Amino acid sequence: MPGKKGKSLDFKRLLKWTSLFLVALFVLLSLIPYLIPLQRLRGNRQEQAYSKSYFVGADGIELHYREWNGSTAEARNILLVHGLGGSTFSWRYTAPALQEKGFRVIAVDLPGFGLSERKAGLDHSAEARAKLLWSFLETLDPGTQWNLVGHSMGGATVAAMALQQPERVNSLTLAAGALTHFEPSISTSLLKFPPLSRWFRVLARLLLTENRVEQLLSSAYGRQPIAEEIHGYYLPLTIENTDAVLMDLINTAPMPLLDRVGALTIPVLCIWGEDDTWVPLTQGRELARLITGAELIVLPNEGHCPMETAPGLFNEKLFRFLEEQQL
Description:
Elements: H1 2-35, E1 53-58, E2 61-68, E3 77-81, H2 94-100, E4 104-108, H3 126-140, E5 146-151, H4 153-164, E6 169-175, H5 186-190, H6 194-207, H7 210-221, H8 227-237, H9 242-251, E7 268-273, H10 281-290, E8 295-299, H11 306-309, H12 311-324
Parallel strand pairs: 3-4, 3-5, 5-6, 6-7, 7-8
Antiparallel strand pairs: 1-2, 2-4
Helix pairs in contact: 1-6, 3-4, 7-8
């Protein structure tokens, strides 16, 4: 019996010291990220502005946009919305081509991306962004009709816009539109714990490098990006608080768009790269099935960003679809 009692005491001591060690480790790991200075991001929104960049406030957030003036006919207004990590730069081949065809084109940077303001704590759900962009358009040109074009994450935003105000939408184009469900995991929920969110920011700033951008673009493009493309995506990531926006984006609750897109009655074009590994073609086919009358165009041998890697073909298909809506 004494032997068993001794073993019990030894186990209790082990449990006690293990508990103390884990508590100390937890405290240490919670303090360390605050002792590591955040790598300074030196990018400046105004310094990176284009020759014809515009900044306007909408719902307390300063948004950056660019405009290509074409027709004054309301039915030929087009709004272009980029995907994750993108900006108005993503539409550098599409916007001028549409202007040449007589369209008035607006390309906008979503909050926290491109040259738009970085503000922590924002709701980055598709529904919240859609409301913001309608407010933005009201500031620019109240009551006007729009053709909406969105790429990847931007596809979810423009789809939400069409669901919110269908009477103001002439057509909707989803270029590799990322509308699938996303269920927040335990790991994303843990980012709401301040020390872990601080760790995220420390690591994010270390990983926001040109080499990392080059790797991501290679995957998205399906080919090696050139220096101009790498710089076009990398420079906006160097703007202060970009990492905080990315963390808010992860923590933002998704909007179940797939359950609602069947309600759309406007003309819809789904345009997809055949070899897209980011938002696979199977998702494009699913969208075309869910939306009555939607047209699906598949671009052979193209990846996730066909408006950049095959601009001529992409613009041709988009222009034909838009012209059909004018008949």
